[in-house]
Amino acid sequence: SVASVFLAEEQLPDANRGDIIEHMVLVQESAMTKSDDYELALKRYNYVTPKNYLDFISNYKKSLKEERKKIDSQVARLDGGLQKLIQAAKEVDVMSEKLKVAKAEVDVKSKEVKEMLEVISEN
After folding, report:
1. Cα distances (Å, whole numbers) of residue 2 to 26, 33, 50, 57, 122
2. Gap between the Cα atoms of 37 and 45, Å rounded
3. What's the predicted TM-score (pTM) here?
4. Can you give the three-state secondary structure of the chain, one letter per residue?
5. Residues 19, 4: contact at Cβ < 8 Å?
6. If phi over 0 gives left and psi between -120 and 50 gives alpha, with beta otherwise, what is residue 43?
7. Per residue in 54-72, pLDDT tens?
8. In the prediction, which pLDDT does 68 show?
9. 3, exposed or middle or buried, with CB in 10 Å at 0-12, 13-18, 19+?
10. What pLDDT score was predicted for residue 47?
């Protein structure tokens, strides 16, 4: 069909490509059917042309491109946030190690200070 030719270059999942093309054909046929119903009900004619179908396909491709661009932007944003979280976790690990060393030093110094206070209080 016309849609399969125009969508051949688009990266669509193979499992969904046929359904997408079938849906486009169905939409065009529905528009033609509704136009006939419109003419019968209101005695006014609505033109549904092959150009409308090509515009529909073109708009689909344009929307697909825009949505993919939005998704790529969100993926990049989330990836940046994830990298920051990974970096923060590494920094926390390094700080935790430094804290353990500093705590051991503080414990030693506290013990020394207590001993000095005891000596001073005895004198």
Report:
1. 13, 19, 10, 9, 101
2. 10
3. 0.69
4. CHHHHHCCCCCCCHHHHHHHHHHHHHHHHHHHHHHHHHHHHHCCCCCCCHHHHHHHHHHHHHHHHHHHHHHHHHHHHHHHHHHHHHHHHHHHHHHHHHHHHHHHHHHHHHHHHHHHHHHHHHC
5. no
6. left
7. 999 999 999 999 999 999 9
8. 96
9. buried
10. 92
Tokens coding 32: 């033609």
Cα separation, 1 vs 53, in Å, equals 12
Tell me if 20 sits within 8 A of 13, measured CB to CB.
Answer: no
Flag residues of the chain having pLDDT under 50. none
pLDDT at 101: 95
Q: pLDDT value at position 59?
A: 96
CA dist., res. 57 & res. 80, Å (int): 34
